């Protein structure tokens, strides 16, 4: 289904080359948005961009955990599209499910750098731009249903996503009077590269069955599910929503 819910908008989507990020990019483009596909890997971003009409997207290869890359990404977006209306902090990592005391410190630090620090960097770089231009920007952050419903053996991942949820709500309160909206999505497991690590490093029908047993709707997320949710939160239809943490979890949080 296509439309014009994001017509004349320009967005940055981090981790946009694959998984949930690709689903978000596809939905945004279908709804009239021009998108800077930010990924750390060139090949998936290039392949995805090639599937769209010319000038609908551009590519930025960079690391969301580096402050200077945020400045460079904003500069490129302004060069390519003339403005920036929407930021989607989608890029994220997870550790392999294991006993909490066995997770290496480097992995914990990596999750903090990739899952949490980009919210700080994007606020530091993009909010002043919106303020200078008098724009009412929108930020959509990808949290996780593990933030309100943490589970054993993925505690440090849940902790990083809990920080995303808390930061989203705090930033929403701080910038609402400037017309800048912050919301987040809290997905259940989806068809991404995270399936194997969440299942202890392997992706098997048996381990998926255990996960599915805890999701009343009976399936995991698709990239399209997350694209649809992100599009709504980024659109003017959600202009009264800020500080919302939307559970896209098939009822997982009810279990």
From TrEMBL:
InterPro entries xref list: NAD(P)-bd_dom_sf, SDR_fam
GO molecular function: oxidoreductase activity
Xref: SUPFAM superfamilies: NAD(P)-binding Rossmann-fold domains
Keyword annotations from UniProtKB, A to Z: NADP, Oxidoreductase
Keyword tRNA-binding appears in the UniProt entry: no
PANTHER family: OXIDOREDUCTASE, SHORT-CHAIN DEHYDROGENASE/REDUCTASE FAMILY (AFU_ORTHOLOGUE AFUA_5G02870) (PTHR43639), SHORT-CHAIN DEHYDROGENASE_REDUCTASE FAMILY PROTEIN (PTHR43639:SF1)
Family membership: Belongs to the short-chain dehydrogenases/reductases (SDR) family.
UniProt cross-references to NCBIfam families, sorted A to Z: PRK07231.1
Protein name: Oxidoreductase
Organism expressing this protein natively: Pleomassaria siparia CBS 279.74
Record lineage: Eukaryota, Fungi, Dikarya, Ascomycota, Pezizomycotina
């Amino acid at each position: 289904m296509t439309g014009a819910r994001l017509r004349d908008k320009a967005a940055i989507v981090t981790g946009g080359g694959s998984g949930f990020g690709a689903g978000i990019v596809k939905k945004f483009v279908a709804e009239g948005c021009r998108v800077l596909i930010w990924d750390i890997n060139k090949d998936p971003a290039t392949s995805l961009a090639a599937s769209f009409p010319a000038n609908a997207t551009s590519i930025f290869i960079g690391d969301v955990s580096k402050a200077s890359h945020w400045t460079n990404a904003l500069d490129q977006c302004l060069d390519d599209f003339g403005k920036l209306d929407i930021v989607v902090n989608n890029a994220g990592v997870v550790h392999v499910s294991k006993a909490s005391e066995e997770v290496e410190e480097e992995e914990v630090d990596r999750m903090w750098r990739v899952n949490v620090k980009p919210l700080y960097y994007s606020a530091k770089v993009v909010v002043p731009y919106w303020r200078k231009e008098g724009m009412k920007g929108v930020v959509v952050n990808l949290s996780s249903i593990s933030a309100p419903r943490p589970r054993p053996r993925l505690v440090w991942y849940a902790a990083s996503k809990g920080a995303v949820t808390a930061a989203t709500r705090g930033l929403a309160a701080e910038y609402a009077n400037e017309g800048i909206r912050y919301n987040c999505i809290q997905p259940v497991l989806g068809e991404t590269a995270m399936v194997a690590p969440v299942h202890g490093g392997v992706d098997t029908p048996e381990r998926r069955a255990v996960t599915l047993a805890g999701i009343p709707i009976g399936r995991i997320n698709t990239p399209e599910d997350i694209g649809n949710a992100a599009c709504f939160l980024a659109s003017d239809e959600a202009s009264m929503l800020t500080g919302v943490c939307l559970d896209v979890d098939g009822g997982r949080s009810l279990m």
